[in-house]
Amino acid sequence: MVGHQECTMEEDTRDNYTPKFWRKTLTAPAPFADETSCQCQAPHEKLTIAQARLGTPVDRPVRVYADGIFDLFHSGHARALMQAKTLFPNSYLLVGVCSDDLTHKFKGFTVMNEAERYEALRHCRYVDEVIRDAPWTLTPEFLEKHKIDFVAHDDIPYSSAGSDDVYKHIKEAGMFVPTQRTEGISTSDIITRIVRDYDVYARRNLQRGYTAKELNVSFINEKKYRFQNQVDKMKEKVKNVEERSKEFVNRVEEKSHDLIQKWEEKSREFIGNFLELFGPDGAWKQMFQERSSRMLQALSPKQSPVSSPTRSRSPSRSPSPTFSWLPIKTSPPSSPKAASASISSMSEGDEDEK
């Protein structure tokens, strides 16, 4: 078996007080007390708490004992053992675990059996040794057998087995060292949570493949739990659809916002282009004015030249008369002969002008 710190200190080349066997509880489970072959061979003198706090004796660790049921081993148990382990500079922690028979007799039914509780303690980093089937009340013979220096437990009187406090004689002997309980966590609290939410855990385990017989569930409750599981699945599907719908709506809103923004930009651009073409000073108006002026120039008659370019204009000569092209009102011819006579007279007048 693996040796531990309670072994006799032997001189080594590295250190004058290096243990011959190194403690392995950080890399291997703690051993059981009835399986270890390493016994304390140094003189076991009675210590006071003050001496132990100073780190004496130097030839062996202070042997501290803590006991309990340790059902559903939790952080509150671990913190209590940590306090027991760190009470003194050099300590060796022995943990006693009561058997199922003793526990069921004095305290009640446990969730974990004794083998499971023993094994849980072996894997706690603060434990150096586990004592199976520990006594409910500590006797002088038990303390002497395991060379126990001090007993660590919380200071609340523990009434059981017909006694107001099972640690009363330990306290009177000056061997009791108190530890602090961790509030908010205990085995009873954990069991209370399970009982309170029993239906939830029963449905959970049915989903995971446990049978109604294994869960001690009646036929009617089994059907009820399975129906509730189906309802929960439907609720979950609806919830997923709602979440996906929300995501889709959010994406549509984002895209619509982008489309509206682009539409506004295009609208501004269209209105600007329209005003540039058809506004008061737009290009269309200028183009229309230019075309109108060209049309007017094309429709208006050309005027005769005022003077010849080679001759100088005589100051005494009056300018040639201009003729206005005004329409002459004529009465319609009364007969074809009259019409022909008027046409012939107009032609004669043209020849005279030439």
UniProtKB/TrEMBL annotation:
Keyword Lipid metabolism listed? The answer is yes
Q: Where is the Cytidyltransferase-like domain?
A: 65-193
* Pathway in which this enzyme or protein is active: Phospholipid metabolism; phosphatidylcholine biosynthesis; phosphatidylcholine from phosphocholine: step 1/2; Lipid metabolism
Q: Which UniProt keywords apply?
A: Coiled coil, Lipid biosynthesis, Lipid metabolism, Nucleotidyltransferase, Phospholipid biosynthesis, Phospholipid metabolism, Transferase
Give the Low complexity compositional bias ranges. 304-324, 336-347
Q: Which residues form a coiled coil?
A: 224-251
Q: Which SUPFAM superfamilies match?
A: Nucleotidylyl transferase
Pfam families associated with the record: CTP_transf_like (PF01467)
**InterPro entries of this UniProt entry?**
CCT (IPR041723), Cyt_trans-like (IPR004821), Pcy1-like (IPR045049), Rossmann-like_a/b/a_fold (IPR014729)
Specify where the region named Disordered lies, as residue ranges: 294-354
The EC designation for this entry is 2.7.7.15
Q: Which reaction does it catalyse?
A: phosphocholine + CTP + H(+) = CDP-choline + diphosphate
Q: What's one GO MF term for it?
A: phosphatidylcholine binding
| Physiological role | Catalyzes the key rate-limiting step in the CDP-choline pathway for phosphatidylcholine biosynthesis.
Family that this chain belongs to = Belongs to the cytidylyltransferase family.
UniProt-listed NCBIfam families: cyt_tran_rel
Q: What is this protein called?
A: choline-phosphate cytidylyltransferase
Organism equals Equus asinus
State the encoding gene.
PCYT1B
